[in-house]
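S., here's the first fold you wanted:
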Amino acid sequence: MNNILICKSCLYTSAHPLKITFNEEGVCSGCIIHEEKNSLNWNDRFLKLQKIVKEYKSKLNNSYDCIVPVTGANDSYFIVHIVKNILKLRPLLVHYNKYYNTPLGIKNLANLRSKFDCDIYIKNLNPNLIKKITKETMYSLGSVYWHCLAGHTVYPVQVAEQMKIPLIIWGEHQGLQQVGMFSHEHEVEMTRRYRKDHDLMGYEPKDLVQVSNNLSIDDLHSFEYPSDKSINSVGIRGIYLGNYLRWDPIAQHDLMIKKFGYKSCNLNRTFDAYDYVDSYIYTGVHDKIKYFKHGYTKVTDHVCREIRYRRITRNQGSRIIRSFENKFDKFENLFIEWLGINSRSLNYFYNEIRNPNIWKEYEPNKWKINYPKLRIDNKQENKKVKKFYKINSKINYFKKNKYIIFGKGV
């Protein structure tokens, strides 16, 4: 692992799964592209966005202008706010049920639908089928989140095809925001190729069907992308608001809390209280898998973002990562119970997916990470990081933690 580079500006390494690059000064492509936020003319870019969406405004009062994929967390409130209140479009909201739902996420989703007075379509698949798929993707892809990504990225396109609504509006583009895969000026749009290569880890749904498992084509039909012919006949395109607005998740969430009552909460394995409050698993089992496969966790994503926005220093970020990265996942037993496995099976799975280039087993079931260490300069500031998150709720308002398979959120 001696050939792994650490960005001189943020704390991402060259082992990032989205294939980050570095310039001669050792600064990563994500930091370089982020600086566009401080140089682009965002007024001009927003005018360009208004011009794009104008041609999709329906002349019929009972028709939808666009589709907006939503969840009970992330930037859903802000996206719908921009689409409906600023761009004056009539959106149809669509939501894929991930089944790892927190009560808070269900509540946020219900409040979103109510506050913005929008129609919503929700995709609920058979829970037993989801468990079946999850068990297969765990052992073939090392992922418990494949079905979530597959469903969230395909359901909006399926609805667009069925209802002949050509415009889909997303928030930020992960590849752009994290690793600078594109420039904002490229105005990259939704593609089947990006979904397969990155969201689905190179596997189309049909690729999961093997002689050695009990999955069938029918099991995975709901995750299949519409054909190119169908997409072209409707004229479906998916645009990202982050290409036309100066994207800042913290500022956006603060505004959504104030205006629309978005609920936030403390999460156990990261300091970010806004992202993924709808999922018991994203910063839990899914995050531990990320650590064993790639050597870092979600808190590093959040730290690198905040370093780029200059709300924390690199040294402070190193301290934050060190304090959160190995925290206990207090909701792990919920996943074990839901999937019908035991803790021994899950620990065996964790060890099987450990990246041999990153982890070394020095004794049976005892592992050491072989990864560039974060250097903390104790001579630099040792003050606590300013708390810029507004905590207004908790992840569960029931007496017992449990997955909410489906709920009204009231």
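And the second, which I think is the more interesting of the pair:
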Amino acid sequence: MHLQGVFVKNFRLVALGLIFVVAVLLHIGFANEVLKEERTLDSGVKVPVSAHDVWQAYADGVDDVALGAPFRQYGMRTNVGGKEFRSTLVEFPFGSSAAVDSVEADSAGNGGVGSDSAATDVEEGAGVESAQNVAGAKPAQVAVGAKPVRGIILYVHGYNDYFFQKEMAQKADSAGYAFFAIDLHYCGRSFAPGDRRGDLRNMREFFPELDFAVELARVITKERAGHAHSLPLVLIGHSQGGLLVSFYAESRPAEKFAALVLNSPFFDFNFNWLVRNVAIPVVSELAIYLPDFSIGSSGNPNYAYAINRERYGEWQYNTEWKSEERPEQFLGWIRGVYRAQLELHKGFHINSPVLVLHGDCSEDDDEWSYDQMHCDGVLDVEHIEMWAPKVGTKVTTETVAGGLHDLYLSRKDVRDEAYAKTFNFIDESLRGLERADD
């Protein structure tokens, strides 16, 4: 009887062990299939954007609904894995601004700077429409008295965000750059009833709309200035947009972007070591089976209090597009962000000059305090500093004392410093391209 009991007990242990091994093997097999599917969203080779779609988007451009004239907006549609996404390109027509104090309008080298950037996939020639050939398109002109355009800037916003920073556009324009920003799908101008605002499942799902935005920006600038295809293109990304811009540039080496500027990039979750290195990876695996499982809204509204002029800040924006409380979050969003961060942590190989900017302190207390007015209230600046060297081969990291999470929304003296660092870096990067061409 005793031997029978021992046998039954051991049999159960063996059976449980076998069940566990089978479950692990099934998970590994299924997880590998999911990883393959995720990678197929983008092969790393840019798919040429339809010339007709680009010109039609240009033709359908209207005055921006959020900022008004002279800002323009252009709707873009892309298809990823059989799913259609809407995104929006916002333009500040080159030459529209007056000089802004904290930008040196007379900086050296204001002439057009050549670049060895890969030529756009939408070239004028056989079978490609020009603006005049698309119904409704009206070739725009550079404002009278504007200096020659030096390059193109494309700005990518962060999580729970959209483009509303008029000052950024004006400063870029004053410095000689044609300025564009994208509202990614499910965000800002691209948000529609029924969308899960700010949601994602894979960072690669944004690549086609960034491809579209790059080509459309080049076409528009060519129509205005006449030589966009030889102009250098700079990417600026904030927070989650900084992570996205890095991942995108890593996947598009042929583009040879002139420079990247990352404003408090989302290189890691702002949790302790145990949560970042144990809990988040486990949740990421669970998300394979439960991507639409809601975890509600995380974080506190203190950062919003620090920037919104209805509270303690100085900025007015659409709080339905950039809310005090973060949008509802899902396990699939955590996985999408974590997988991109994991790729970064392994090390990117971006050869373009990269500037990583962050504040000098972090503040994540749930109770409001004045520290929220001069620290990063969203991310840990030490994490940003730690992971910055992984972005590429030419990374410069700068600390902006007193900076908020979005450095360009900090108090005036602080954001002026952030802008000065930004445009000095871009200018020097372009001068480097010019020297390489000589």
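Why I say that: DSSP finds ten helices and eleven strands in the chain. The radius of gyration is 24 Å.

Talk tomorrow,
H.
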